Task: structure prediction
Amino acid sequence: MTVDIIIATYNGEKYIREQVESILNQTYKNFHLYIRDDGSTDKTKDIIYDLKCLDDRIILIEDDIINNGVGENFKILLKHCSADYVFIADQDDVWEKSKIEELLSFAIKNLPTNSPGIAYAPGYVVDEHLYSSKLKMTNTDNKVKSLGDMILMNGGVQGCAMVINRCLYQMVLRTNFYWYMHDQVLSLYAICFGYILFLPKPLFRYRQHSNNVLGYNSGGVKLWFKKYIRSRRNTFLINKHTDKLFCDFFSSESFRMRKNQHDFFFSYMGSRKNKVKFLYYIITNKIFLRGKLTNAIIKTLLVKDIVER
Result:
């Protein structure tokens, strides 16, 4: 079976070679690696050209579409895919040699082919030199088990951790709204209409550095509370891009939803601008933050706004 792998690049000259080489050296060899650059001003494209000359599995997508952000870049890449399964890669991570083999085997055994699905595995959190003294992982269990888990997460399953099936990427490509973050869109569709499954084995090294678009959040409640004390006037629960995605998703897909899903989003729309109503919403829908309802309640009471202004 041939699988597709996609990488969206932008000014990634420091790390892209190491990431691509870790993919080319996988134990599973039967794949196409699609790369599309979003207007880099450094030597990223030169490095990709060099690598492409060494391995014909690398396919560089070149077009006249202007720079439009990482989410839209991944959307364009998905339009070039045709495999039953697609792996998503960040430009700055490093994959363990057996990542494709192990995660693909898990997906084939556990994901229904006729429903949109994500299978994902965690990664070791490392510094820019790939060093970690504590062997901290991005996840230790499935963090998206229900639709409610998406509300306060401001994200979803990390794209760099996932493999998706054909049913999912064909479904999301029907959308005509803007993708700010691709992994959030994929997670929302999978949990609403299909499945998200977790393989509890770290299969890549997730690099933390100053240029990450959205880094892994490892600070916990104490760090958040310190930030809250410093910037009370600007605190919020849900960032504006996440809120817009929820609104666009509901507008686009409400007719496909089950009644409880429709009611869930309809209630969100009606409560997100009023703190009392939103408190009632998270309590009645049992919406957790970091695994606890009490965390969600406390943070709702403390922030200035529900949705970022």
Summary: The CA atoms of residues 110 and 203 lie 18 Å apart.
